[in-house]
């Protein structure tokens, strides 16, 4: 199968727009050929997962794009970095790690990326719309965009997401295409459930573990209190498995009915989930015995929106008033830069 390039694609590949863009297109072409894409398509935005420093190779890659005059061509948000550029005193890192971590984050900004530094770009002003083609990294963001919003992205890894942002193009393959978005495996909730936070996490854990590489459809899920509960479901499914898209019947935009979710095709398998299954999945999250002392409490992964952040702060205040401040535990709630600014 031969990848068909537009005149614009070819001009980027030929270096007519600079060394950096040529390099990005060369990598994107190789990736597209590897996955069997027939052509490239335009994207409306990108989210970059590679600004968390893991080693010299990631820094070299981005700085060479900067040196080659590179700039992103679409609105591009950034995932979390290894360092806090606004509050450097709060981060304790050895200089050997701090210096390259700073350089990597700043190099992405030089490419024209937005200084969002959040794993929840769907909570920013760069949230995509239904049906929009995007190229996102970060597992929880990918499953949220595909499932809750109905935007279209594959699970893009480091470097490929940035190449898409640089060129404004992505391979027409996988979840970008309508025919690849139908459900394949059905999860039926048996019994009556209230829309508790724990329910959505528990369902997500089970769906991720049991779906494999198939697109799950969930029926019997109660209407969520807010989209944060769907965020939790997707994040859990993307953590315990490789879920990039789920359909919740009567809830998510591509699953108004069960037939809509499966596009008229019978599910490959049906798995029933009862309350005991959910309780068991949640119990496995902790490996410490009941009653063990807490050293720290960390909430907000993925990052909290303002609504959840305010609820968390109220909870922490009650926790302290109840005498918990005399313990060794320290509560913490990671927020995106945008939410922290609005909260201060």
UniProtKB/TrEMBL annotation:
The keyword Acyltransferase does not apply. Residues 325-344 are annotated as: Disordered. Pfam families: AcnX (PF04412). Keywords: Iron, Lyase. Residues 4-306 form the Phosphomevalonate dehydratase large subunit-like domain. One of its GO terms (molecular function) is lyase activity. It comes from the Bacteria. PANTHER family: DUF521 DOMAIN PROTEIN (AFU_ORTHOLOGUE AFUA_6G00490). This is Phosphomevalonate dehydratase large subunit-like domain-containing protein. The lineage of its organism: Bacteria, Pseudomonadati, Pseudomonadota, Alphaproteobacteria, Hyphomicrobiales.
